[in-house]
């Protein structure tokens, strides 16, 4: 029975040390798919940046719009301001009145403040009819006083009351005596006014609200008008054909071509970029823009020796990142071209058979189709405008050549760089200056700095490519 | 390079490290796939998917528990996910059967034969048998993994055992016939 086993144990024991290697094809598939993934991932990373930029833009927009609504309300007609000014003393009078305990004091104060506000009324001619109707009692009291006294007296009374009022504010005790100095008529008036004023005081809680709503309706209409005007004024879309000289170089010492050129002197080349941009104004301050630009870039690696070589195998002295493209070159002698840094020449101890030329420079030129996505923030927006620009560009490679360029001689095509990526990116910063030629047309001048990300693989040294362009163009707004 | 260093490099998407990791574990994981799959070709597909998932999620491995255990879990899950897509688990509810003691004679049964038997089991029987018998999952775990109830899991296991025993007996009978 010892060979009788539970089926579980049978399988467990058999499978314990069982191992089968998969075929190589599996790893090849995995490798291929991993490669695919890496390539695919480049774009999502860029979209992440773009996404975050868009979110920032959105937040800024919302923020700015929130902030800009307040000033609009404040800007609305001056009538409101005067009205508020009038309201405040009267409401203060209520407060003051409630603060004091004795009837007399309250009486005096109310009356005086009432007169005081009447005084303000009479001096301010800009009052609208609504204010007048909303404070009939006050008008009535003022007419009463004017009925009993001539205008000059009223004025003097007002000034007295003003004085009293200020004194009241300082000392309520002395106020009493001052008031007692006033004429009986005045006292009567004051008493009458007090009763009326009380009515006002009672009505007050509602009245300011009434005023408020009345005015806000007016304001709303006016502000909405002004907003409508604003909208009419703002040309949201604009299209800018532009052209720019662009200068390419590297921030650090390094080479995109070969390790041996890391320390060679390099000179950037000035090329041209041209294209068209479209921008959309999110609000007065922010514009978002994109477009298509053709951009050619290039730089020279100096102090290079280029020679025709048959003795050296091409592997020893051809460039690390350049593949000679035979099909392109009709001249068969180019096949054996070797390039070496003159700085390395002595060390290497190689004696090339025939120097094609000394002191040649290697010219690497490449071109991209650039698709920028940028945000423009307006700092000033007068006849001359100033704005800050930031964003990203996608660069699609469409031109890629390497030439040798002797000091006095003709350019020779060597091949194309193998380490420039088909799609790469740049981070862009710049300043935008614009001059309003007409209402519809702006002249733009934009110095831009674009730091290239991910353009070259397998560079040697500290190769940090960038380019500077001064973009100019006419923006047509509509 | 230690395993942890290798994992670190894999986390940085280093192709060479990924290749190294594959070399280290592909045998074990392929065997696992073979047991869970219907045939060799399917096992290869599953292994490929499993490794892609592993390289994708290796950043989530925080050195808690054994790395191999982690790899095996991912592999099993990959296979199960595949079957879930195929709706393998949605077999009509069957009546539970009693699990009886099944014992068989162990003679010259090759591992290849046993593997073939497992692969020929109906999908769910195979999965439950593998999970429970060969990979030590509990019925509770299996029920959760396959989204079935515990009773079903137990029943499936019993049926799997029965089927295996029958196959083995039949095989032996044929062997005996041949030897006669």
From TrEMBL, chain A:
Q: Where is this region: Disordered?
A: 78-212
Q: What spans are recorded as compositionally biased (Low complexity)?
A: 108-118, 161-174
> Which UniProt key words apply to this protein?
Membrane, Transmembrane, Transmembrane helix
Where is the sequence biased in composition, kind Basic and acidic residues? 97-106, 175-195
Polar residues compositional bias, start-end: 78-93, 119-146
Annotated TM spans? 46-67
Q: Where is the signal peptide?
A: none
Q: In the UniProt record, does the keyword Transmembrane helix occur?
A: yes
- Supply the name of the protein: Outer membrane protein beta-barrel domain-containing protein
The record lists the organism as Aestuariibaculum sediminum
UniProtKB/TrEMBL annotation, chain B:
State the InterPro entries in the record. Answer: RNA_pol_sigma-70-like, RNA_pol_sigma-70_dom, RNA_pol_sigma70_r2, RNA_pol_sigma70_r4_t2, RNA_pol_sigma_r2, RNA_pol_sigma_r3/r4-like, WH-like_DNA-bd_sf
Q: Which organism is it from?
A: Aestuariibaculum sediminum
Task: Please give the name of this protein.
Answer: RNA polymerase sigma factor
Give this protein's Gene Ontology molecular function annotations. DNA binding; sigma factor activity
Query: GO annotations under biological process?
Result: DNA-templated transcription initiation
The RNA polymerase sigma factor 70 region 4 type domain is annotated at 114-164
Question: Which stretches make up the RNA polymerase sigma-70 region domain?
Answer: 21-87
The uppermost taxa in this organism's lineage are: Bacteria, Pseudomonadati, Bacteroidota, Flavobacteriia, Flavobacteriales
Q: Name one matching Pfam family.
A: Sigma70_r2
Instruction: Respond yes or no to whether keyword Transcription regulation is given for this record.
Output: yes
């Amino acid at each position: 029975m010892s060979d009788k086993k539970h089926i579980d144990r049978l399988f467990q024991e058999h499978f314990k040390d069982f191992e089968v290697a998969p075929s190589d094809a599996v790893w090849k598939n995995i490798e291929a798919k991993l490669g695919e993934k890496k390539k695919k991932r480049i774009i999502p990373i860029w979209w992440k940046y773009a996404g975050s930029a868009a979110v920032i833009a959105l937040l800024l927009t919302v923020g700015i719009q929130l902030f800009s609504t307040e000033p609009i309300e404040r800007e609305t007609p001056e009538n409101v301001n005067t009205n508020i000014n009038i309201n405040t003393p009267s409401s203060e009078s209520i407060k003051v009145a409630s603060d004091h305990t004795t009837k007399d004091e309250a009486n005096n104060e109310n009356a005086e403040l009432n007169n005081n506000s009447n005084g303000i009324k009479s001096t301010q001619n800009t009052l609208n009819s609504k204010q007048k109707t909303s404070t009939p009692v006050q008008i009535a009291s003022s007419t009463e006083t004017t009925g009993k006294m001539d205008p000059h007296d009223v004025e003097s009374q007002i000034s007295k009351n003003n004085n009293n009022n200020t004194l009241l504010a300082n000392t309520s005790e002395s106020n009493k005596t001052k008031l007692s100095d006033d004429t009986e008529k005045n006292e009567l008036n004051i008493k009458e006014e007090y009763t009326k004023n009380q009515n006002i005081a009672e009505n007050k809680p509602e009245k300011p609200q009434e005023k408020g709503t009345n005015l806000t309706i007016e304001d709303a209409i006016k502000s909405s008008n002004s907003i409508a005007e604003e909208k009419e004024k703002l040309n949201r879309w604009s299209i800018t054909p532009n052209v720019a000289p662009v200068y390419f170089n590297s921030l650090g010492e390094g080479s995109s071509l070969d390790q041996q050129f890391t320390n060679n002197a390099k000179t950037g080349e000035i090329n041209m970029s041209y294209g068209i941009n479209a921008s959309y104004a999110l609000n007065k301050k922010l514009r978002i823009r994109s477009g298509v630009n053709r951009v050619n870039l290039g730089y020279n690696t100096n102090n290079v020796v280029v020679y025709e070589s048959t003795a050296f195998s091409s592997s020893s002295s051809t460039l690390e990142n350049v593949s000679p493209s035979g099909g392109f070159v009709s001249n068969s002698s180019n096949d054996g071209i070797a390039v070496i840094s003159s700085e390395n020449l002595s060390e290497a101890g190689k004696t090339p058979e025939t120097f094609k030329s000394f002191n040649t420079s290697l010219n690497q030129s490449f071109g991209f189709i650039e698709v920028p996505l940028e945000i423009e923030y307006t700092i000033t927006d007068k006849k001359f405008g100033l704005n800050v620009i930031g964003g990203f560009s996608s660069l699609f490679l469409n031109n890629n050549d390497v030439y040798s360029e002797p000091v006095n001689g003709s350019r020779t095509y060597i091949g194309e760089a193998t380490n420039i990526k088909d799609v790469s990116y740049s981070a862009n910063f710049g300043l935008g200056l614009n001059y309003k030629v007409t209402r519809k047309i702006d002249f733009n001048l934009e110095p831009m700095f674009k730091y290239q990300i991910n353009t070259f693989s397998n560079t040697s040294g500290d190769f940090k490519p960038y380019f500077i362009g001064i973009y100019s163009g006419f923006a047509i707004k509509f | 390079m230690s395993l942890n260093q290798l994992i670190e490099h894999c986390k940085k998407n280093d192709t060479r490290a990924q290749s190294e990791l594959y070399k280290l574990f592909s045998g074990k994981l392929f065997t696992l796939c073979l047991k869970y799959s219907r045939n060799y070709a399917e096992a290869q597909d599953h292994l490929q998917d499993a490794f892609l998932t592993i390289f994708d999620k290796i950043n989530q491995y925080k050195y808690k528990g054994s790395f191999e255990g982690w790899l095996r879990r991912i592999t099993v899950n990959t296979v199960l996910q595949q079957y879930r897509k195929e709706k393998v688990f949605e077999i009509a509810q069957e009546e539970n059967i009693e699990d009886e003691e099944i014992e068989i004679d162990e003679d010259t049964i090759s591992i290849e034969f046993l593997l073939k038997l497992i692969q020929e089991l109906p999908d769910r029987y195979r999965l439950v048998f593998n999970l429970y018998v060969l990979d030590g999952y509990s019925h509770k775990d299996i029920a959760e993994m396959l989204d079935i109830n515990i009773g079903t899991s137990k029943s499936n296991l019993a049926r799997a055992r029965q089927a295996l025993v029958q196959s083995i007996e039949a095989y032996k009978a044929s062997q005996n016939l041949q030897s006669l």
